[in-house]
Design goal:
The protein has 3 helices and no strands. The chain is an all-alpha fold. It is rod-shaped. Helix 1 runs antiparallel to helix 3.
Length: 155
Amino acid sequence: MIRLYALLAAVALSLSFWAGWYWRGDRANVAESDQRANVAEAVVDQVNEARAVEHSQADTMATIGAKHEEDRAAAPAVADAVVADLRSGALRLRHDLAACHTDLLSQTAAGTLERDAATQRREEFAGRVVRIGRDADDQLRACQAVVAADRGQPR
């Protein structure tokens, strides 16, 4: 009988040892799972932050692009206004610009039609020059806005 009790005690001790070992293994698995879950959450947070930054940058670039397109759409109106102001006399060209086309034609030899055509060409030329200058300014302003946005500087 004592042997039976000793045997049962040995079996019970053995079972309790293995149960404890199994329980310890479960705790290790839970700790490892918690650690993996924390790492996964950190990665998700980083990805979400990166996406938020990308969306913010895309919105900034879209705003810059829209402003540039508005400026490009307004450019012909400015050139047309310069031509109209030149024709109405509200705006006058400097003498060196006004003389660039008339050097080829002598004012005394040119007829009225030729003088009018030269004046009209000069006005149209001035309008085109203003438009080219405005387009260049608009392009430069948009490029500078993109660089400033990329560097995180306020515009």
